[in-house]
Design a protein that fits this description.
The complex is a heterodimer of chains A (165) and B (133).
Chain A (H helix, E strand, L loop, with lengths): L1 H6 L3 H15 L4 H18 L14 H26 L8 E6 L5 H13 L3 E6 L5 E6 L5 H20 L1
Antiparallel strand pairs in A: 1-3, 2-3
Helix pairs in contact in A: 2-3, 4-6, 5-6
Chain B lengths: L1 H28 L3 H30 L6 H28 L20 H10 L7
Helix pairs in contact in B: 1-2, 2-3
Chain lengths: 165, 133
């Protein structure tokens, strides 16, 4: 059992790399599956010193739901931002910094949250506090900063909490 | 049937083009540095996404094979866009803002970009390092 962990330090990464290779080849064949799997074994093994801890995925199946929610929000985000850019005069816009206190602890989860915030409606994650307890978010147009903060916590952080912690 | 798919592919391409243009226009129109970051990170995602959808649809409808490496481009884009934006934002905070002009950092002292080596030393002196396991 120990040997298997030594050989596959990141089983999810192995799976993901194999899948990535198959998708990039763009034609299904046994050859590319084998080669993709080889890459999936070698890359995590070689990069192991840089990434000693395994991310702890408690409920991996919740990821599908999360991706779906985020994808829909991204489409919506594009339309909202496009409308602000095209039709809202600069004087009416209320750009704002928002501080989001974090309940998440793991770096992977915080990274995922920061990425999501950047891709979704009118918000952009800019920085994290020095001890990692808060996230700095810039809003393109936020007349009511508290509402934006609550929505991010409700919509994304709660879901990431279920997945990672 | 062919015509329908042609219209669909064309519609995706046109939508993508519009969002691409809006993203670039936003760069000119928005008037402060942080706001300018919003337009290219978001509007262009749908811009590129539209082209990729059109490409997949075209392969399936006209060249009779299922093409899916476009999904990888979308994935890489979603991974890289937030990181680029974050780095540009950090440069802005580093060069244009000071600790006093930034909002409160929640319960912590300041934002990570304004961290100095002295802060790091102070922190490691204050708290005993967690045990290695």
């Amino acid at each position: 059992m120990k040997l298997i962990w030594r050989l596959f330090p990141h089983p999810f990464l192995t799976l993901l790399l194999t899948l990535t290779w198959l998708l990039m080849v763009n034609r299904w064949s046994l050859n590319s599956l084998v080669f993709g799997f080889l890459l999936g074994v070698v890359i995590p093994f070689v990069t192991q010193p840089f990434w000693p801890n395994r991310p702890n995925l408690r409920r991996p199946f919740k990821i599908a739901e999360y991706i779906l929610v985020v994808l829909l929000d991204i489409v919506q985000a594009n339309i909202i931002v496009a409308r602000i850019v095209l039709f809202k005069p600069n004087a009416d816009r209320r750009p704002n910094w928002i501080t989001i206190p974090l309940d998440l602890k793991t770096p992977e989860a915080i990274t995922a949250l920061a990425g999501t915030i950047t891709m979704t409606p009118g918000t952009l994650s800019a920085d994290v506090s020095d001890e990692g307890h808060a996230l700095l978010v810039h809003c393109l147009d936020a007349p009511n900063p508290d509402a934006v903060r609550d929505e991010i916590k409700q919509r994304y952080e709660r879901r990431l909490m279920e997945i990672f912690e | 049937m062919e015509t329908l798919f042609e219209f669909l592919v064309a519609a995706f391409l046109v939508t993508a083009g519009i969002f691409g243009i809006v993203g670039s226009f936003g760069l000119i129109k928005l008037n402060d540095q942080m706001s300018r970051l919003h337009a290219p990170t978001k509007a262009t995602t749908l811009g590129v996404g539209g082209v990729l959808l059109a490409s997949m649809l075209h392969a399936a409808a006209f060249e009779k094979y299922f093409s899916y490496h476009e999904l990888m481009i979308t994935l890489f884009l979603f991974l890289t866009a937030p990181i680029t934006a974050n780095f540009i934002a950090k440069v802005h905070i580093h060069r244009q803002e000071t600790r006093d002009t930034m909002p409160e950092a929640g319960g912590d002292d300041h934002w990570a970009t304004h961290d100095t080596p002295e802060d790091e030393e102070r922190r490691s002196a204050e708290q005993t390092p967690p045990a290695e396991d």
